[in-house]
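Marked as duplicate of an earlier ticket. Keeping the data here for the record.
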Amino acid sequence: ERAYGLLVDAMRETKRVAICWFVLRRKRYLAALRPHGRLMVLALMFHADEILPAASLEPSAPSDLRKKEREMAALLINTLSGPFEPERYPDDYRQRLKTLIAGRAASARPATAAVTSGSGVDDLMAALRASVEQARLVSKSRGKPAVRRKRKTA
């Protein structure tokens, strides 16, 4: 928890956002990880080829809309609108998964997992120093890109 809190504070103070990959249901996604209060928020991002200019999607404005049509459309929206109630949108996937797990748990003996205690980070400063040093080594090793030589052709 201490390392997590330090990361959140450092990202907030430096006004930085981390760009990362994460895997969800066997698919790799591009995301932005940013601090929000004492938490980190993971926001999905689009790849460059998935982004279109808004102007290319904007329909032409209909010129023949009557005032009465606009009023009826607004009335329909207001009639269908209401407060958001998340319980009206159940997670069917999660429920099916729980049922599957319960069925398998009833028919099979559960495996026991080894219990580990602690976070594995005894000295936060030492871990931070090691991470910074590794990042420096990686950035130094990148250096300038290698120059490609033209191959001689026969």
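See parent ticket for discussion. The CA atoms of residues 121 and 127 lie 7 Å apart.
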